[in-house]
Structure formats: structure tokens, C-alpha cells
Design brief:
The chain has 410 residues and is mainly beta. 4% of the residues lie in helices and 40% in strands. Strands 15, 18, 19, 21, 22 and 23 form a 6-stranded mixed β-sheet that branches.
Length: 410
Amino acid sequence: MLNSMALNLIFAALFVAGAVTSSAGTLIDVAFTTAPVTSKTGFAATGVSTNDFWNTFVFNSEGLTNLEFVDGTPSGAAMTLVGAGGEYVNGASDPMYASYLFSTRQFDMTVMVTNLSAGAYVVYVYGHGNSNNQNGIYELTVGSLNYAIEATTTNSGWLSSVWQEGVQYVVFTNVDVSAGQTITITAESDDGHIALLSGLQMVSDSLFSSSSPIVVSQSVSQTIPQGATATFSVAAAGATPLAYQWLFNDAVISSATNSSFTVSNAQAVNVGNYSVIITNVYGSATSTIAVLNVKAFISLIDVAFTTGSATSKTGFAATGMTTNDFWNTYGATAEDLPNLKFVNGTASGAGLAVGYSGQWFAVYNNGASDPMYATFFDELYGSVTLTDLFQTISLGSATNQMQFFKAVQP
């Protein structure tokens, strides 16, 4: 079974590609609302087409006796809901997600789905209130089996139009339903928290039983520092088992037979094109090419201005190469630095000079946690000049807060 993080991409890609002709009969969509008919159609986190049918569960109704698949054909499954006290909106652009039913007096809401065909299912549950702390908390059970508790986010991002697991919805995978069993989904309330629910989708795992491989999440090109690590990975769907073979510039990489491939201590010889071929008994699929570029260390110089003889700062600031990046130190009473080092500790040949007007000079601390950014020089008139960095570069005058300077070679 494929992991839940990739399922939203996998299902959508399989449906769109038409890998399984009966796919429309594997998905049931439900929107919970006070409207007599939801205006929602098409995809949410998964779907078959832009015309996907969504069943409407109307607030205070007796339930739905024959849920329809996304192509409008009857599934035979039924649904009831207990505990809803009203409807509210959260401002989202999606008509299903924008509206949610909520509980009264901090009671739970319970959805029960009966008469499903026996098999394994993936269940998506959607819901979020109109503020960060009004997230949805959901528990799914089938008989005596509990599929844990999942929740949507309490951080920002829940109004995004890009569907993200754990943000606007949760996913329960490998939900096994025997003949006659009921799926029970509980929208939970706790101290100061209301139970809420916007929608759900139920997908049958039979979708993957007889299809050739499809790459639904491609590797991405990367540019990394020399000596760093790059990992390429794909998500694929299709009848199992799936076999993987990674290629470098179209040549087979020995022992690279997993869904991901890692290049460690990357050097110039590793620069090139990476792809993977996925195969099963029904056929094969090849990923798109992901390009690896390796950036030499000699592109970055870091300087910290401080009272100490050596700054404790290492690694990244707004930019950087690695967590061990070297930072040159310019002390308050130091002489000019004639040979700045690159972040890998090698000499750059560039020099740094700080000029003062002679009026007054002081060093302050602003309380920041970063040891470079926390200390700054304050001087009414002054300038910083870099020499022999292809040309002489002056950073100007009247720099009364020189917190740090970072130079990248052209």
C-alpha cells in the first residue's frame, strides 16, 4: 500500500490518466451543508473529473439512503449524521470546504456509512472553522478497529486553495470493511473546541489492482553545494509489486532500485540528469528528468562584525552553503582583513576595510538569538570597502547599523 502523503496526488493522476476504466465507480463524494443541493463539483484533494458529482447531506435531514458515485450511478451505500447543531462558513473559495456543520454544546458529531461493498478504502475528511484554533479533529472506526485520531491544522494556511493533507483535510488509509460493517467517523469536540465537518471522500483501493505504473509525483531538479547531499524521489501507482531502476545520464545506476535515490558528498562528476524507470507485470513508466547541479564553495564570503576576536556564528544566515559555513570576524578594534576566507575556509584573496569618520564609534547588542545579527556597529559616518573581489567595491557611507555583510562573487 502506498503511503498517505502521496495518496492525494496518486488518485488524481490515476483518474485523470484513465488507467482504470471503472474508476468512476470507486469514489464517493459528500458535502455537508444547509443548502438543498451543494454547488460543489469536480476535484477536491482527489477526484475523477471536473464534473464529479457530490452528494449533498443536508443539515437536519434523515440521511442519504443511496449514495451516488462521482459518475452519478448508485452505490447502494447509506449515510446518517448525528449531533449537528448548525452551519457556518470559513471564507474558503471551495464551496464544499467553505461551509461546515458544527456541534452544539461541545458535543461530538458522528457520521455512519453503511452498506459499502466489502474491501479496503481510503477516506478523506474535510473541515476547518473560521479561525486558526478551530481545526477539525476526526476519529475513524470500523467494528472494533480504531484508525487513530487525525486533525487539520491549527496554523495558518487552512484557507489555501491548494489541497494539503493535515491542513484542510485528513486521510485514513487501509480502512478494511467487511460485508455488513459500518464506517464510523467521529468529529470530536474538547475543551472550548467545537466539532465540525465540511465533506468527505471515500475511495476503493480496488482502483490499483490491475494497472500499469504511473508516476504521479516527479523528482525535482536541485542545485546543492559541493559536498552536500541530494535525494531524488518519486511516487508511483499501479499494480504491485513495483520495481524501480534509477538512471544517471541514461545509464543504469547499480543497486539504485528504490523509489528514492541519494547522492552523497556531491561533486562535479555527479552533475547531470537523473530519472527512474518503474515496472510491473502490466508495463512500465519513466519519470521526467531531474537535473543535479553542484555549486562550488568559492562563491560565498561571510563576515560578522563583533567585539570578539572570533565570532561564534557558523552556517546559514539569509543564504549559505552548509551548516558549517565559516564566518570571517571583524572585531571592533581590529585591523583590516586582507584575505577574507570563503565559507569552506579557503583564502579568497579579497580584503575588507572599515573606515570611520572619527566622530564616535560604539558596539551594541539588539538581543537577537543569531550571534552575528545580535551585534552591530554604530558610527555616524563610515564605509566598508572590499578590494580584489574582481573589482573594488565600496558599500557607502552613513552606515550607522552595519549588522553584517555577505558578498557573493559574480
